[in-house]
């Protein structure tokens, strides 16, 4: 079974259904939270693949991961029931990512991630967001992340493009040039 093909079929079917019902925005928010939960709690995926858990327990786990204590939308609940009925819970993270991609393409939303060594101010974050949005001619979702291992500078991912201006990467380049130069001398 090809995970990508099956996941995309489910995601496309859900997107078409959501558009016909006018609930794609609500589902997008729920799937964003579910994606965040999958990334933040890797054990979630393992729990969903656990054969000891009942379908009811898995359903409750998925809904909690997507909406917390709030009630899940009718469409989300029906879709999750279908996924669990068809025993496709092992594909749920891939289905989630496929749905998010389809929604973003449909709504012309770019995704950016800014990684810095120290937290950036709200003003800087907004300037980067606005510049990227204007450059893409699309609305923009910008996530910021602090990673002290880059030592300074920043790494900016936008769609499929990466701009790495971190100190750590610059030091690696200098080190590699030094090693290459010494090899030529010997």
SS summary, helix count:
8
Helix content: 55-70%
Query: In terms of structural class, how would the helical and strand content be classed?
Result: alpha+beta
Strand content: 15-25%
Q: Tell me the name of the CATH class of the largest domain.
A: Mainly Alpha
Q: And the CATH topology of the largest domain?
A: Peroxidase, domain 1
Distance between termini? 53 Å
How many individual β-strands? 4
Q: Please summarize the sheet with the most strands.
A: 4 strands, mixed
Strand order of the largest sheet: 2-1-3-4
Uncertain parts: none
Shape: globular
CATH arch. level architecture of the largest domain: Orthogonal Bundle
- Give the quaternary arrangement of the chains: single chain
Overall mean pLDDT: 92
Kindly provide the radius of gyration, computed on alpha-carbon positions and rounded to a whole number of angstroms: 21 Å
Using brief descriptors, characterize the structure shown.
globular; ATPase_OSCP/dsu; Peroxidase, domain 1; ion transport; 186 residues; transport; alpha+beta; 2 domains; membrane; 4-stranded mixed sheet; 4 strands; single chain
Topology:
Elements: H1 3-21, H2 24-40, H3 43-48, H4 55-67, H5 74-85, H6 92-107, E1 109-116, H7 122-136, E2 139-146, E3 153-158, E4 161-166, H8 167-185
Descriptive notes:
It is globular, with a radius of gyration of 21 Å. The protein has two domains: 2-105, Peroxidase, domain 1, CATH 1.10.520; 109-184. It has a four-stranded mixed β-sheet with strand order 2-1-3-4. The protein has helices spanning 3-21, 24-40, 43-48, 55-67, 74-85, 92-107, 122-136, 167-185; strands at 109-116, 139-146, 153-158, 161-166. Helix 4 runs antiparallel to helix 5. The chain is α+β, with helices and mostly antiparallel strands and 186 residues long. Belongs to the ATPase delta chain family.
């Amino acid at each position: 079974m090809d995970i990508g093909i099956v996941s995309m079929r489910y995601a496309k079917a859900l997107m078409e259904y959501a558009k016909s019902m006018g609930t794609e925005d609500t589902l997008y928010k729920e799937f964003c939270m579910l994606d965040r939960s999958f990334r933040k709690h890797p054990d979630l995926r393992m729990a969903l693949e656990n054969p000891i858990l009942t379908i009811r327990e898995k359903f409750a786990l998925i809904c909690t991961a997507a909406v917390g204590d709030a009630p899940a939308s009718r469409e989300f609940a029906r879709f999750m029931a279908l996924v669990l009925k068809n025993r496709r819970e092992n594909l749920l993270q891939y289905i989630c990512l496929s749905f998010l991609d389809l929604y973003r393409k449909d709504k012309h939303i770019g995704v950016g991630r800014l990684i810095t060594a120290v937290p950036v101010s709200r003003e800087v974050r907004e300037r980067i967001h606005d510049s990227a949005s204007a450059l893409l001619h699309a609305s923009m979702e910008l996530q910021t992340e602090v990673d002290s291992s880059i030592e300074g500078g920043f790494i900016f991912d936008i769609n499929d493009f990466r701009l790495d201006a971190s100190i750590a990467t610059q030091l690696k380049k200098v080190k590699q040039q030094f090693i290459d130069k010494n090899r030529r001398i010997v």
